[in-house]
Amino acid sequence: MKVTVDSERCMGHGQCYTWGPDVYQPDDQGYCLVPVAEITGDLAAQAIAGAEACPESAITIHESTVTAVREAR
C-alpha cells in the first residue's frame, strides 16, 4: 500500500498523524508528511484511519487490497 498527500489540499489540521502516528508526521509547519515508502502490516490500519480522518480529503491510499484491510479492523 502506498499513501500520497495532496500538498495543495493539506491544511495542517493534524488529524492524520493523530490517528496514524507511525505513518504520518508533521513537517516544520505542521503539514502532513508520509516518511514510510511502503505501508505494510499493522501500519495499514493506521494509514486508513489517518486518511479517513483528514477533513480536507488530502490523503489518498493506493492499493487494490484496501477493502481487505478495512474488513480486518
From TrEMBL:
Source taxon at top rank: Bacteria
Alphabetized UniProt keyword annotations: 3Fe-4S, Electron transport, Iron, Iron-sulfur, Metal-binding, Transport
Pfam families tied to this protein: Fer4_15
InterPro entries from the UniProt entry: Fe-S_cluster_ET
Keyword Cytoplasm attached: no
Entry cofactors: [3Fe-4S] cluster
Any GO molecular function: metal ion binding
Gene3D superfamilies: 3.30.70.20
Protein name in the entry: Cytochrome
